[in-house]
Design brief:
single chain; 181 residues; alpha+beta; Glutaredoxin; two-stranded antiparallel ribbon; globular
Length: 181
């Protein structure tokens, strides 16, 4: 089959879009933060992710893809929470009531913090909404997931599993030293 310029251009566009889907990050550390819980009362900080695999997800009430991502994150937490996954949703709405209305319609089973001044969001330099970061137990950002579409859950689940199984000091979180005779 002969590739035309149009096919090559399509391949280039697809490659760019695929890179936005889920890209490895270059040993960048999780940005420290301390924010109020959206529901009030408590403080949610980056310390909640120490020693765990974390998904830090930036979302807003006006974001349609966010509505589809929340059930997926609830599923991931249900499946991997006992293995060391924590999910922190960071809302960037100025209007807290709109964010709370979103949560009434689309409940989150994970931690949800408010960043109305968008200071934490600015530190992450978000490429689009929503954007999620998968962070390893060592605090390094492993993957950036920009946007959310049907079918994204399988890829994210794979990356979370990989992060949960990554080695720390030569052993994966679930392994002990091998016994050799």
């Amino acid at each position: 089959m002969i590739k035309t310029k149009r096919n090559l251009k399509s391949v280039a566009v697809f490659g760019l879009l695929a890179s936005l889907y889920m890209t490895p990050s270059c040993a960048e550390q999780m940005k420290p933060f301390s924010l109020q819980s959206l529901q009030g009362g408590s403080t949610i900080s980056s310390d909640a992710a120490k020693g765990k695999v974390a998904i830090v997800d930036f979302w807003a009430s006006w974001c349609e893809p966010c509505k589809a991502s929340f059930p997926a994150y609830n599923n991931l937490l249900s499946k991997f929470g006992s293995k060391g996954l924590v999910i922190i949703g960071i809302n960037i709405d100025n209007d807290k009531e709109k964010a709370l209305g979103f949560l009434e319609e689309t409940p989150a089973q994970f931690l949800v913090a408010a960043d109305p001044d968008k200071k934490v969001a600015a530190a992450y330099n978000l490429p689009t909404m929503p954007t999620s970061y998968i962070i390893g137990r060592d605090g390094n950002i492993l993957y950036t997931h920009a946007g959310y579409h049907e079918g994204d859950l399988a890829g994210m689940e794979k990356e979370v599993e990989n992060a949960l199984n990554q080695t720390t000091g030569g052993l994966s979180q679930n392994e002990g030293p091998s016994e050799q005779e």
